[in-house]
DNA sequence: TTTTATTATCGTAAAATTACGATTAAAAGT
DNA sequence: ACTTTTAATCGTAATTTTACGATAATAAAA
């Protein structure tokens, strides 16, 4: 027990959940905001902007990378992070589809 | 250690993260899909549609409720679940804003 | 009133997450 | 070569999540 029953769900649900989970921490939202702010992506100064230690930020970056939402290329001494355009679009679309499915309830109970 | 440093982030980031976290499990996505499928909201048969035990489903429902995304009203013997329109819209908007911020990178590194 | 159906909660266990300091690795600068 | 800078990884600890069976709690049905 304790581990998610991944195999039992549809690929679509697993994929959306994966992206949503990556977005499910304020530190990672903050990191993404920093990356979204700039058109260039030399960003070795993410740590300074967050109230967390270097190792913790690195861990959050790793999770965003593992979810596919960001990429990190070594650029000399620093690492160059940026949003992964494809994954970003996929996440946006998948979530948009789900959110768009809502139609107001016609029964009196809610 | 182990607990999220909630106070140190902006309310916006905490709020989006809260919604995203609630969406961050395939079972909860599946539950939301079931609720989104119908215009009425008498839904006591969520358990049958999922590969999880009754207590586990109940726990997932609780988390969706605590995040604000769904409501549950007692309707006789059963409980009537449905999407919370306001929270749903807020979550959609907050995520949409973040996703919309992306502009392709103009440097060569990614 | 007793039974049945439905959902929540409790207790428990395994696993994952969050966080930090310390260490390592790699590249650049001296 | 040595030092410095930058980021990842390791080791560790607390907390949270995921999951289940068993047990309440509540309301309808018999």
From TrEMBL, chains A, B:
Keywords: DNA-binding, Transcription, Transcription regulation. It comes from the Bacteria. Pfam families: HTH_5. Residues 8-106 form the HTH arsR-type domain. Gene3D superfamilies: Winged helix-like DNA-binding domain superfamily/Winged helix DNA-binding domain. CDD domains: HTH_ARSR. PROSITE patterns: HTH_ARSR_2 (PS50987). This is Metalloregulator ArsR/SmtB family transcription factor.
């Amino acid at each position: 027990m304790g581990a998610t029953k991944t195999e039992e769900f549809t690929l679509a649900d697993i994929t959306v959940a994966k992206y949503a989970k990556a977005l499910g921490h304020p530190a990672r939202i903050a990191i993404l905001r920093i990356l979204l702010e700039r058109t260039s992506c030399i960003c070795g100064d993410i740590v300074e902007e967050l109230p967390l230690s270097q190792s913790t930020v690195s861990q959050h970056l790793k999770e965003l990378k593992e979810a596919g939402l960001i990429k990190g290329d070594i650029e000399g001494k620093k690492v160059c992070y940026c949003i992964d355009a494809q994954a970003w679009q996929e996440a946006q679309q998948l979530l948009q589809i789900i959110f768009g499915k809502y139609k107001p309830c016609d029964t009196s109970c809610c």
